[in-house]
Specification:
The protein has 530 residues and is α/β, with parallel strands linked by helices. The chain contains 16 helices and 18 strands. The chain folds into 2 domains: 160 residues, 3-Layer(aba) Sandwich (Rossmann fold); 309 residues, Dihydrodipicolinate Reductase, domain 2, CATH 3.30.360. The structure holds 6-O-phosphono-beta-D-glucopyranose.
């Protein structure tokens, strides 16, 4: 049974547009995108810039310089972007300012000559705007092996400048993965920090740009009725799920086989979601306060001992199967994947957060490719009421017909798809008997708000232009995330296991995952639409 707690009419009175003027970028800016012919730029970054421009957040005086290896004219690059944006349902005319202000430079990122060309172009554009030097954003949408060398070359060729020398700013967005283990992440951090200050480094985690991920904070700290319940007195357990039906789709195997479910999703995106769910209220909504609180959660993660790694983690690979009558490859048969690969396409863990608020509450996390549906959610299961009054009482069976204890008292943050919130509670069924049933109180973003939900990259790029690092990860966050997951990865590597269990594709995942939750009151939530 469903009921609705919020109606569209209630929400239309919410002044959602307040403050747009305060956050729009007024100063001219140049954005340099490394990896400009790549998928991320075409599918996400350019559409995000287009929408930001259309919605009035970007200045008229904006230039976008794409950098990649293949030679191309400005015109060809504009055409490439114009065509690829059509996939994002954007039909921008060639005369659109975003396309008209787009330039292209071909070059190798380890070749200083390429950076000299970029600098000359930047200075030329800045001169046209009558600026001694201008605001510059560099986006590293390239393979992680190139992060350090690009930052080094940016700095040595004077494309970035120390804040103290100029009024203008220069910032660098670094894509994921930020390292492949603790040692490589520390090395990368040391390397970029030798050229840039922390305030110039924007480590992107696109999950933080998702509306519903941000709404975890709004919901928790913008209301007074929920957060007092989010602690070990009332919460039984928390389940964080990121399920995807996609596999390698013929092109991701080579990268994915070096990463796996834990490095690709759990260590970064999912851990950030856990940190937002578990953190204490920040003293203010600024980058330092929010990130300080997230770090406290990450520091409270109880590391697994070597013996615990097997007990508290599950890993598996999808087997071959079929979809709509067509055969679908198993993980080991995917292009780019080693036939004897030990890389997991599914992982689940039972996490403990040892702090005052959460001690004793298990956080279960699971993520996998080729699962039944695309579902990303955080489900908070509350404890039973202290006394179950709705037991069948002797002598009143006629009047008091009792249902099984309903699966109620669950609060779900649905991050995607159909972004929203659901609170499931027990309710008396109408009638003369006392029978409880679970009802859902739902709020759905699409239905609730008449406006377009912005893509994560829109929010994040805008924030980087505004100099707001709240939704970017700080070096110590990355460090603590890796400390925790490094122990698991090392434990797996040392296990001596030669083959991973397989799971049937398009299901809820491996049977083995059940053992993680078996001691608790709740089993894994079914992977299904809300
Ligand atoms: C990326 C991972 O960071 O996030 C992918 O590399 C994953 O493997 C993707 O599919 C999921 O992002 P979203 O926004 O579709 O949930």
């Amino acid at each position: 049974m469903k009921t609705s707690i919020l109606r569209k009419s209630d929400l239309q009175s919410v002044p959602t547009d307040v403050g747009i003027d305060a956050i729009k970028i007024k100063e001219p800016v140049s954005i340099v995108i490394f990896g400009a012919s790549g998928d991320l730029n075409k599918r996400k970054l350019m559409p995000a810039l287009y929408h930001l421009y259309q919605d009035g957040y970007l200045p008229e005086q904006i230039s976008i310089i794409g950098v990649s290896r293949s030679p191309m004219t400005d015109e060809a690059f504009r055409n490439l972007i114009q065509t690829s944006m059509k996939d994002a349902k954007i039909d921008a005319p060639a005369t659109h300012p975003i396309l008209q202000n787009m330039f292209y430079i071909a070059g190798n990122v380890d070749d200083a000559a390429a950076f000299k060309k970029i600098l000359a172009k930047l200075e030329d554009l800045e001169k046209q705007r009558k600026q001694a030097c201008g605001n510059r954003l560099f986006y590293l949408s390239v393979a992680p092996d190139f992060f350090s060398v690009i930052v080094k070359n940016l700095s040595e060729n004077k494309l970035t400048y120390p804040r103290s020398q100029t009024e203008a700013w220069s910032r660098v967005i670094i894509e994921k993965p930020f390292g492949t283990d603790l040692a490589s992440a520390c090395k990368l951090n040391d390397s970029v920090k030798s050229f840039l200050s922390e305030s110039q480094i924007y480590r992107i985690d696109h999950y933080l740009g998702k509306e519903t991920v941000q709404n975890i904070l709004s919901f928790r700290f913008g209301n007074s009725i929920f957060d007092p319940l989010l602690n070990n007195k009332y919460v039984d357990s928390v389940q964080v799920t990121v399920a995807e039906p996609l596999g390698m789709e013929g092109k991701r195997g080579a990268y994915y086989d070096t990463a796996g479910a834990m490095r690709d999703m759990m260590q970064n995106h999912m851990m950030q979601v856990v940190a937002l769910t578990a953190m204490e209220p920040p003293s203010a909504l600024d980058a330092q306060s929010i990130r300080d609180e997230k770090v406290k959660v990450l520091r409270s993660l109880v590391p697994f001992t070597a013996a615990e790694v097997d007990a508290y983690t599950v890993r598996a690979q999808y087997a071959a199967g079929e979809l709509d009558g067509k055969p679908v490859k198993g993980y080991l048969q995917e292009e780019g994947v080693k036939p004897d690969s030990m890389t997991e396409s599914y992982t689940a863990i039972k996490l403990r957060i040892d702090n005052w608020r959460w001690a004793g509450v298990p956080f279960y996390m699971r993520h996998g490719k080729r699962l039944k549906k695309k579902v990303t959610e955080v489900a908070i299961y509350f404890k039973d009421p202290p006394l179950n009054l709705f037991h069948q009482a002797a002598g009143n069976a006629d009047l008091c017909m009792i249902a099984d204890r309903p699966k109620s008292n669950v609060l779900v943050f649905r991050i995607q798809p159909h972004e929203g919130l659901r609170l499931s509670v027990a309710c008396k069924q109408p009638g003369l008997r006392v029978q409880l049933e679970e009802v859902d109180m739902d709020f759905n973003y699409e239905k609730g708000f008449a406006q377009r939900v912005p893509e994560a990259y829109e929010r994040l790029i805008l924030d980087s232009l505004r100099g707001d690092q709240s939704l970017y990860t700080r070096s110590d966050e990355v460090d603590y995330q890796w400390r925790f997951f490094d122990a698991i990865l090392k434990g797996w590597a040392a296990s001596g296991q030669k083959k991973l269990p397989q799971y049937t594709p398009f299901t809820d995942g491996p049977e083995d995952a059940r053992r993680l939750v078996s001691g608790g009151r709740h089993s894994w939530r079914a992977i299904k639409d809300m």
